[in-house]
């Protein structure tokens, strides 16, 4: 095998490995979001967001920046389902746009224990489609933008449609 051919193959493998590692890291961030929300771990939750993050639920921006994001987990609505919630995140289609930017599109279902007792049955509290934009800063993936649309919300297609389009090279 010629040195040029070997170098090209190694470069391709390094690129593919970096993309696979990015996808895994993005999935871990989103999974950690659900775990932090359900355990009411505010420091863990805050560590997931960029300083300039934006959270949009059903077409309304409800938080801009980390401090406003903190207020969501501290809110009466979120606290009312504690410790009886389970955020089930995914599956997600994760598109690595470049070395420092990725988009994940998929499902989010929040279950809450009825009667809020350990013996109660769980029910779906919210089921939605989500689009998460993540940036890598100093080697660490963080959530820059989160959009969530309830399954019945008319704006679902606007956040799901981009994930349904294959890139021209078929790499994602």
Describe this structure in words.
The chain has helices at 3-39, 42-46, 66-74, 76-80, 156-164; strands spanning 49-57, 60-64, 85-98, 101-113, 122-137, 140-150. With 172 residues, the chain is α+β, with helices and mostly antiparallel strands. The chain has one domain (3-164): Nuclear Transport Factor 2, Chain: A (Roll), CATH 3.10.450.50. A 6-stranded mixed beta sheet has the order 2-1-6-5-4-3, sandwiched between helices.
What is CATH's topology name? Nuclear Transport Factor 2, Chain: A
Say how many strands there are: 6
Derived from helix and strand composition plus strand pairing, the structural class reads: alpha+beta
Count of domains: 1
Radius of gyration: 18 Å
Query: Based on CA inertia axes, which overall geometry fits?
Result: elongated
**So how many helices?**
5
How do the strands of the widest beta sheet line up side by side? 2-1-6-5-4-3
Helix content: 25-40%
CATH class: Alpha Beta
């Amino acid at each position: 095998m010629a040195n040029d051919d070997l170098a090209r193959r190694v470069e391709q493998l390094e690129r593919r490995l970096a993309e696979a590692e990015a996808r895994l890291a993005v999935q871990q961030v989103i999974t950690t979001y659900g775990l932090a929300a359900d355990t009411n771990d505010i420091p863990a939750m805050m560590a997931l967001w960029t300083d300039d993050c934006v959270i949009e639920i059903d077409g309304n921006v409800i938080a801009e920046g980390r401090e406003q994001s903190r207020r969501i987990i501290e809110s009466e609505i979120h606290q009312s389902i504690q410790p009886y919630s389970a955020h089930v995140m995914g599956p997600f289609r994760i598109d690595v746009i470049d070395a420092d930017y990725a988009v994940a599109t998929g499902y989010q279902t929040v279950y809450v224990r009825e009667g809020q007792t350990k013996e109660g049955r769980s029910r779906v509290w919210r089921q939605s489609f989500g689009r998460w934009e993540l940036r890598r800063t100093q080697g660490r993936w963080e959530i820059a933008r989160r959009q969530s649309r309830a399954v019945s919300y008319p704006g679902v297609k606007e956040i799901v449609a981009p994930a349904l389009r294959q890139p021209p090279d078929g790499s994602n």
